[in-house]
Automatic annotation (TrEMBL):
Signal peptide: none annotated. Residues 10-422 form the Peptidase S9A N-terminal domain. Residues 1-17 have a biased composition (Polar residues). This is Prolyl endopeptidase. The keyword Hydrolase applies. Residues 1-20 are annotated as: Disordered. Its EC number is 3.4.21.26. The lineage of its organism: Bacteria, Bacillati, Actinomycetota, Actinomycetes, Micrococcales. It holds the Pfam family Peptidase_S9_N. It comes from Oerskovia enterophila. One of its GO terms (molecular function) is serine-type endopeptidase activity. SUPFAM superfamilies: alpha/beta-Hydrolases, Peptidase/esterase 'gauge' domain. Residues 529-731 form the Peptidase S9 prolyl oligopeptidase catalytic domain. The keyword Chloroplast does not apply.
Length: 731
């Protein structure tokens, strides 16, 4: 990582708020800043963490995270099924493998591949797993060559090391192994002796966002300094990378140029590694996403596109034969077109089919599309069928087992009250899914229900949200007796003390970057909140992807306030329905959701009894100059442009704070190792509010990166702080 983007003790030079007295808190590991952090953490330890209730909550959460009964998610690599696993005995985790027959049993026989705890102890490093990529071998050869990404302490910046799956050892650079030093970036296999490398090559090689600007081709046994440049982006680009697709008979090389979020170009590298090598740009709109699989190219549109006299709507998924497209043909088959209630959630290839995942009012529906044979003409339609038997309210995640050789897919189904179930389905075979694993129930869901409602935002837009909790609490008018719990004389339920109309309620949201929030089971949430009489609400506000690109674009830049108006509308609707009151309503958001939380705190304090602001953006004047902040200008705008700062300042919590105004109690959380969203955001607003005498709790984990925690113990501790803070403030 280049010095100007690293997490250092010195903030980058940039325009600052006049007379900002808290700029020193941006010195991430500066002595004065860390003394302040340690003082705030000590205050939290002496209050929230010192209670017996905290210890009990932390233990209950830790039991969920460390449970041996959770579903071990697996990925097929050759004849083995690999899983990364953390539990009480393996805090940092182990990478292990088994066979499908063994995986089908209640107690699979696992073969240990890599132990991160042992590795960290041997190397005196707090390694955090970031994943692995494995090269598909030539026919008849072993699956051997892996690239493993490891992060020190959980930061986005990581290292990549070559690993031998046969000997189960790292291949050292002295023996010709690939090693990418710590930086944001990566390696990608070309063949057994060659990789694409995009990383920090020295001054000028990283973008203002702290990501790689150059991709090179690197041959085994040579120093990375001798790697050949394949593509060099412009100085203001966001991210440059390269990759090879390894479908047998359709091997191709590509370069991706991310200019900004929602603005990218993809290039085909023709005649790669030859004197005739050249890059050919895939001629689609820069806001579109492109994918190539075997003979097919898929295009997912974010904006309407008119080409060859036909107009395709934003949110659509198009298909065409790739070679025909390169030759100039511009005819497309529309595989999905959105409606007012539907959006595309994803598409997954198998060997012979494409499974399209559609959100319909934030509930998943799966469709199977089968392309015509290669001999058929370009206008032959794709065959279509449905996958029935899916949950009415819930989330369905689909992933190919091996898209090159099989039509099998993994299906994971879940909702807020139903533990996840993992099934194996052979697409097109006409057989029912085979249930392989089911997570245990970590809390008693008896008497709990899920409802979906729609609030009306300030401009009349209907905003969906889910409510989860005890039936008598989330459906006012339904007697507590329906839950089986005795009713106390004052109308409270004796088991928890909560009463209809005053239920402690946690409202969660995100509202950015086209991210959709769909129902999912959380044993942590269930144990620490729902089982104790709490109500949980998820708001599907604009800025997300629940209704496709238009739902996201409705809250971009100068329209950001729409997301916050939506969230406020949901908060008011909960009160209007008699589910809770402002005194008993808390909210939480993380990252972009932390910006949401900061705006709820500073713009709508009267709606909430408590606010949790997690790993947030808050100082929107300086955000583009802090770590990866420059990469988000397409979402929020550029504060260095005076015209754009005029609207950005209207959602900059650091500048909206008014020392004379009343605010609900607030908890700020962040991580010293977060090299994506700078911890100075949380530190500075917390310090400003403390100086004004406001009710502020602060906790900063020294590890964890943007995720906030590097292992289960840290995750349980952080979650327990969140839930105990809410319980103390909301009742």
């Amino acid at each position: 990582m280049s010095a100007e983007n690293a997490v250092t003790d010195t903030p980058t030079a940039q325009p600052t708020t006049p007379h900002d007295p808290y700029l020193w808190l941006e010195e991430v590991e500066g002595r004065e800043a860390m003394t302040w952090v340690q003082g705030r953490n000590a205050e939290t330890a002496a209050t929230i963490e010192a209670t017996t209730e905290f210890a009990a909550t932390e233990q209950a959460i830790r039991e969920v995270l460390d449970s041996d009964d959770k579903i071990p998610d697996v990925s097929r690599i050759g004849e083995h099924y690999y899983n990364f696993w953390r539990d009480a005995q393996h805090e940092r985790g182990v990478w292990r493998r088994t066979t499908l027959d063994s995986y089908r049993t209640d107690h699979p026989a696992w073969d240990l591949v890599l132990d991160l705890d042992a590795l960290g102890e041997a190397e005196d490093q707090s390694w955090v797993w970031h994943g692995a990529s494995v090269l598909r071998p030539e026919p008849g050869q072993e699956w051997r060559h892996a690239l493993i990404d490891l992060s020190p302490g959980g930061s986005d910046a990581d290292v990549t090391r070559e690993f031998d799956l046969v000997t189960k050892t790292f291949v050292s650079p002295e023996d010709g192994g690939f090693l990418r030093e710590e930086s944001k970036g990566g390696l990608g296999w070309i063949d057994a002796d060659t990789v694409y490398v995009y990383t920090d090559f020295g001054p000028g090689s990283m973008t203002p966002s702290g990501y790689p600007r150059i991709v090179k081709r690197w041959h085994r046994g040579t120093p990375v300094t001798e790697a050949t440049v394949v593509y060099e982006g412009e100085p203001e680009d966001m991210y440059i990378m390269g990759w090879r697709t390894h479908s047998p008979g359709f091997e191709r090389d590509f370069v991706g140029r991310s200019i900004a979020f929602y603005d990218s170009e993809t290039y085909l590298v023709q005649d790669a590694s030859t004197p005739d090598e050249k890059l050919v740009k895939i001629d689609v709109p820069r806001s579109a996403e492109v994918g190539v699989k075997r003979e097919w190219m898929l295009v997912e549109l974010r904006d309407d596109w008119t080409v060859d006299g036909a107009t395709y709507l934003a949110g659509s998924l198009l298909a065409t034969r790739f070679e025909d497209f390169l030759a100039g043909a511009r005819g497309f088959t529309v595989l999905f077109e959105p409606t007012p209630s539907t959006s595309l959630a994803g598409a997954t290839w198998t060997a012979h089919h494409l499974v399209v995942n559609v959100l319909e009012d934030v509930k998943n529906r799966l469709h199977v599309l089968t392309p015509p044979p290669p001999a058929e003409g370009p206008d032959v339609p794709w065959a279509r069928s449905e996958l029935p038997g899916l949950p009415t309210i819930g989330t369905v995640v689909v992933g190919a087992v091996d898209s090159e050789e099989s039509d099998d897919v993994w299906l994971v189904t879940t909702d807020y009250l139903t533990p996840s179930t993992l099934s194996l389905l052979s697409v097109g075979a006409g057989t029912a899914p085979e249930v392989l694993k089911s997570s245990p129930a970590f809390f008693d869901a008896q008497g709990l229900v899920i409802d979906q409602h729609f609030a009306v935002s300030d401009d009349g837009t209907r905003v969906p949200y889910f409510v989860v909790g005890r039936e008598d609490l989330v459906r006012p008018g339904v007697g507590a007796g329906s839950t089986g719990a005795p009713e106390a004389a004052d109308g409270a339920t004796a088991a928890t003390g909560a009463r209809p109309g005053a239920a402690p309620t946690l409202l969660y949201g995100y509202g950015g970057f086209e991210v959709s929030l769909t129902p999912g089971y959380s044993g942590t949430l269930g144990r620490a909140w729902l089982a104790d009489g709490g109500v949980y609400v998820v708001a599907n506000i604009r800025g997300g992807g629940e209704y496709g690109p238009a739902w996201h674009q409705a809250a971009l830049k100068a329209k950001r306030h729409k997301a916050y108006e939506d969230f406020a509308a949901v908060a008011r609707d909960l009160v209007a329905r008699g589910i809770t009151t402002p005194e008993h309503l808390g909210m939480e958001g993380r990252s972009n959701g932390g910006l949401l939380a900061g705006n709820m705190l500073t713009q709508y304090p009267e709606l909430f009894g408590a606010v949790i602001v997690g790993v947030p953006l808050l100082d929107m004047l300086r955000y583009t100059h802090l770590l990866a902040g420059a990469s988000w200008a397409a979402e929020y705008g550029d504060p260095d442009d005076p015209a754009q700062w005029e609207f950005i300042r209207t959602f900059s919590p650091y500048h909206l704070f008014d020392a004379e105004r009343e605010y609900p109690p607030v908890l700020f959380t962040t991580s010293t190792k977060d090299d994506r969203v700078h911890p100075g955001h949380a530190r500075k607003l917390a310090a400003k509010m403390l100086a004004a005498g406001k009710d502020v709790t602060y906790y900063e984990n020294v590890e964890g990166g943007h995720g906030g925690a590097a292992n289960n113990a840290q995750a349980a501790h952080m979650a327990a702080i969140h839930y105990r803070f809410l319980r103390e403030q909301l009742g």
